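#struct-help
A.M.: can someone run this one for me? Single chain, 133 residues.
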Amino acid sequence: MIGNAAFSWSSKKELVVALSSCEASYIATSMTACQAQWINMLLMELQLVKDEKMELRIDSKSAIDLEKHPVAHGRSKHIETKFHFQRDQMNNGKLEVKHCKTDEQIVDLLTKPLKQSSFDYLKKKLGMAEASN
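D.P.: on it. Structure tokens below:
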């Protein structure tokens, strides 16, 4: 999102098999960080934004912990090096990872079956409104 506008979203089948939900979130976070960095560089080149720290919100506390404290996770040593991109971005001050409650994840509107109340809440948060006839 830039401001309150959603401008990029993607879903794809991953080419690797994650051994846990933590690892799956970590890999998805890495791919998102790569895409966000590319978009940020494009917007900087177009002089639409300045070089600012990007904020990445994820709902997996274990994936955030894995990013911040990799030494404590001996089970993660098999993760391919390319998936540690977001950790490098955090260390360079270009990316900040924050926890986002699961019920606040706007992408769930597009990826999960939701109760009507949750659907309406996330739709409003995304800035969508009912079309009038």
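A.M.: thanks! Residues 21-45 form the longest helix (25 residues).
D.P.: also worth noting: The helical segments are 21-45, 61-68, 85-91, 108-111, 116-126.
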